[in-house]
Design goal:
The protein is mainly beta. Helix content is 7%, strand content 34%. The protein has one domain: 2Fe-2S iron-sulphur cluster binding domain, sarcosine oxidase, alpha subunit, N-terminal domain (Ubiquitin-like (UB roll)). It has one helix and nine strands; from the N terminus they run ββββαβββββ. The chain binds FE2/S2 (inorganic) cluster (FES).
């Protein structure tokens, strides 16, 4: 069952659009072209984006680019905010481990 929001009381019906493919931890996943990395992961049932220094799982928190809870590694580049970064076709996303500094 998809976790994607397809109808919203304020936004209305969300129109179907172009599907792209990206990679997360070696898995090939599908996303909508307008997705952020976070919305693409959530719609694929993935809530854990990384791990803290103590090994605790981290997901997204503020969802507006103001914290550092959603940091992931994108195409080898660490500290990318999944909640505000658009997903791209062919993008390679990995969980980030340990403390990171967000890229401003
Ligand atoms: S969830 Fe807070 S910056 Fe992404």
């Amino acid at each position: 069952m998809s976790r994607r929001v397809v109808a919203h009381p304020i936004l209305g019906d969300l129109i179907e659009e172009e599907v792209i493919e990206f990679e997360f931890e070696g898995l090939k996943l599908k996303a909508l072209k307008s997705d952020t990395i976070a919305s693409a992961l959530i719609s694929n049932g993935i809530d854990i984006f990384g791990f803290s220094e103590s090994g605790k799982p981290k997901g997204f928190f503020c969802a507006i680019g103001k914290c550092s809870s959603c940091l992931v590694v994108v195409d080898g580049v660490p500290n990318v905010r999944a909640c505000i970064t658009p997903v791209r076709d062919g993008m390679r996303v990995e969980r980030q481990k340990g403390k990171g500094k967000p890229v401003w």
